[in-house]
Task: structure prediction
Amino acid sequence: MNLWKTYHNARSVQDALQALNTAPGDVNLIAGGTDLLLDLQQGRHAPVHTLVDVTAIPEMTALEIRSGELFIGAAVPHSRITQSELVCQHAAALATACGLIGGPQVRNTATLGGNVAHALPAADGTIALVALDAQAVIASSSGTRRVPMEELFLGPGQSALEPRRELLVGFYQPLKGMHQASAFKRVMRPQGVAIAILNAAVWLQREGDTIAAARIAMGPSGPVPRRLRQAEETLRGQVFGTAAIQAGIEAVQAEASFRTSRHRATKEYRHQMAGVLLEDTLNMAWQSAGITGE
Result:
């Protein structure tokens, strides 16, 4: 049984959009395909008429500084992100997160855009991008626009993108400034299954001994990836130390909405581990932000 009839190698964003718009039957984008091909083979996804491959589109495989921002194309694989000096310098949380996704073969193939487009509330790359204040670049026949990461998601596994009319091109994020840093940590099953029980990404800016600003994302802390803004506000302006960290932990535990998953962990376990992860990521980011020259 054929899983698709037509395989289209798009050469530009407009080429991909045209293929999406004109395919006579069901159509899907493919980049790494590490989830899609398995779903097709194992019957979890209905056969499609056309697959549109975006891995040859220069805009979607770019990783560079543009006009004072870091741009990462949606078709850039996780291994390249992890190994990039630019990403390690300006988005340490994302470099760490992408290095934890799957195994080496998966990371060499799977892409950042695929991680985001799946709209899972605990996707490692997505959680890091949310904390880094990234914006997604969306292309359609009417042009391109930039949207905050949190606007991409409608619910668990539900993307706000229109599948036949819109294309996730890439991501912009601010460059790291003086005394700014980010960190990412996660808890996973001891059997080695490459899915997160809970993950956390933190970005912060320090001024002397004070947390001048913070961004926190934790997954899954609700039905969609999101920032925990009440916890961020709790930390802002506090002198870094045990009292500030404890206040942040209590704010996260009050704001997050954890649930029990029979395949991953109980609500109670996640509630407890949220404090451990927040403390670890805050300490990592704080120490990095204090390194001379950063």
